[in-house]
Amino acid sequence: MSLEQQIQKESERFQALFDRLSDTQWSDGALPEAHNYLITCKDHVRLTQENITEFNTAVEKEHKRLLDIKGHGVRHTWYKVRGKLEERLDEQEKTWLQEFEKCKEEEERLIVLQEEVRSAETYLHECQTAYDEYINTKQKLDEMLEDFFSGSTPSYPEEDVMEQDLKKQEEQLISLQNQHRLLTHVFQLLHKAHQAVMIARRALDDALNMNTFDLFSKSSFADIAISSNLARARNASMQAQQFLNEAKRVSPNIPHIGQIFIRQDNLVFNIMFDNIWTDMSMRQTIHEALNRMCRADTFLLGILAGMKEQLERCEVDRDKKSKHVKCLATEHFIKRITIVQNIIKMPPPYSSEV
């Protein structure tokens, strides 16, 4: 069966799908707008409810003041003695009424806004229903067109060229997407490694400060604090090394940073044989570890900066390629639709029996 015969055979089903697609295509652009509109309406409701709460508080406050003046308390007596009771009552009643009116206005506004939210929700549901049908119809129509045009179609060489170009561009897009995922993963691992190095640096700084204190105090507490900080630095350095190893496994091109492991001395030995020489030896050990962490910190910052630039370029290329592929897919879809419609419009071939 030729392509033309196949299309003529499926013409009614094609037309039904095409008409349904045309009827629901509006939802493709309307759905995100409806979603954003609903969010805006809900924000207005939330702000109005906050205003009502605020105005209610003000109304209660002013009403309490009014009752104090009307009653027989200190305020009432004070204004009455001064001969300003009626004047003050009028002022307080006006203030209370103003706040009360504001509250009522916001409550009326809230009713209107809540109705807008209900309408927006109904419209969003309509858009979602139409969009679901649009996607489902588009998929069925794509499958039908693929059955018609998959492979070589010598009668329509332009469609063949567009199909091959689209496939090539889609493969390039997939490659860019995979590259972006890989770079993102490596960047996150390096960022975690850098955070661990920073923790190790802070712990080493604390250990160095306690070592300085130990030089003058000869306190066993200082040795315990130094050991605790060194343990924290060692654990952080081990975490950093694990993140770096994983990053290098995923991306072997990452430069080698060097040894960042931190050695920890024996706490019992340091307490039992605490003297100026053990303290100075410990100080030297901390300085060496701190220098390694500083170098690793600087090195990682440079790698992260370069990786971020690479990731941003890849993201730009990926988004650009994605838009290009969408345009090509739309053009290819329209081309196939046009071919099918032209074939359906063609009069049936003349035949006569001999």
UniProtKB/TrEMBL annotation:
Stretches assigned to coiled coil: 159-186
Keywords tagged on the record: Coiled coil
Top-level taxon of origin: Eukaryota
PANTHER family linked to this entry: RE15880P
The protein, known as: Uncharacterized protein
Species, as recorded: Adineta steineri
